[in-house]
Amino acid sequence: MFSNRGLEIKNPAQIDKMRVAGLLVGETLELLRGSARPGMTTGELDEIAETNIRAHGGIPSFKGYSQPPFPATICASVNDEVVHGIPGARTLQDGDIISIDCGAIVDGWHGDAAITVAIGEVAAEVTELLRVTEEALWQGMVAARLGGRVSDISHAVERHVRSQGAYGILEDYTGHGIGSEMHMAPNVPNVGKPGKGATLVEGLALAVEPMVTLGTKETDLLDDEWTVTTADGSMAAHFEHTFTLTPAGAWVLTAVDGGAARLSQLGVPFGGR
């Protein structure tokens, strides 16, 4: 591992360790996706996540993070809560959506990913919001090429969302570099012109995370100093993956299959091991 203009560049063995952490995150999110249902509290989902992470030798990345210390294993953001929602006694209802952000550390290396899950039957426009946001995540990752620039990802995310309708794209919250720390340089915005920012090189790992709303991009921060909500009360979705580039192609470290199936559908080479 070496630093290149402030970026942490991992060797193949270290990327393999990140895959272990990423796989644990991906498997935990799939467990939560299957568990989330009407009548369950966000706190119960948090307990499931922490139990699973610790049972497999991991440490929750979020618990105790920053100031004020985040108090839980997952971020559980419901409906108009975009990111950083604190799990607790809130009961999920039919028609809700919940964005679940999860991070884990294994052997000193981080994985970070997020999904948004529909609870029961949701409105058609909300289903579309989830589709557009998740597709934008994958469009961002497949735009990445060795020798390209970080904003190639940003541009692809924005272009896809804009092509689908009048959605709000958060600009004040971004993706990020990741590795021996959860949040590292460079930032990965969800809007921007291509060809800007850090060069994409082998060994760089990035967390890409579009946050999209049915209204505007404006947000408010609640008094808990963590939960970010849409200023207009509109629904919001959040999807995230940690990925890296190898000479063979993209490798999505937090996807259970490494991203192989989705990348194949999109006609992009799979670079996993």
Task: For the structure shown, list the relevant keywords.
273 residues, five-stranded antiparallel sheet, four-stranded antiparallel sheet, alpha+beta
Q: Care to describe what's here?
A:
This protein is α+β, with helices and mostly antiparallel strands. The protein has five helices and 17 strands. Helix 1 runs antiparallel to helix 2 (42-55) and helix 3 (124-142) packs antiparallel against helix 4. The protein is globular. It starts with a strand and ends in an 8-residue tail after the last helix. 53% of the residues are buried.
Provide a concise account of the structure shown:
Helices cover 29% and strands 26% of the residues. By secondary structure, the chain is of the alpha+beta class.
